[in-house]
Amino acid sequence: MFKQMKDSQHKTPSKPPVKKPDYCTLFFDKIKDYDISGCCRMHDEEYEDPNVDRKKADNDLKECVNKVTNSNIGDAMFIGVRVFGWIFWYKYRLGQVIKTINKVGKEQCKKWL
């Protein structure tokens, strides 16, 4: 009995589980046995890239998901990101504007306006 108490006192606390990024926001990361999280990650990265047009990013997502799943599920996702994706796209763009303002300074930005 003493040994059981002693062992329980020296237990290493368990680590919290590592949270996997959710690239497929508001959608499944896997459809049947098909993992589409890589397509969603690409889409997120394209939204963050100021050189990529939003419609192109959305179309790339559709094509990638259709190819990975060998179906037309990407077409449904395309409709979803066209309707709701502007919220996330705008969030990324606003973040870039704020970073630019902080980088070049507020006074310089006032000159541009």
Structural class: mainly alpha
Question: Looking at the structure, what is the overall shape?
Answer: flat
**Number of continuous helical runs:** 5
- Ranges where pLDDT stays below 50 over 5 or more residues in a row are none
The whole-angstrom Rg is: 22 Å
Number of strands: 2
Describe what you observe in this structure.
This protein is mostly helical. It contains 5 helices and 2 strands. The chain is flat and about 55 Å long. Helix 2 packs antiparallel against helix 3 (54-69) and helix 3 (54-69) runs antiparallel to helix 4 (73-104). The chain has a domain at 35-113. Strand 1 and strand 2 form a beta hairpin. Strands 1-2 form a two-stranded antiparallel ribbon. The protein has helices at 2-9, 37-48, 54-69, 73-104, 106-112, and strands at 30-31, 34-35.
Q: Descriptors for this entry?
A:
113 residues; mainly alpha; 5 helices; 2 strands; 66% helix
SSE blueprint:
Layout: H1 2-9, E1 30-31, E2 34-35, H2 37-48, H3 54-69, H4 73-104, H5 106-112
Antiparallel strand pairs: 1-2
Helix pairs in contact: 2-3, 3-4
Brief description of this entry?
The chain has 113 residues and is mainly α. The chain has a domain at 35-113. It contains five helices and two strands.
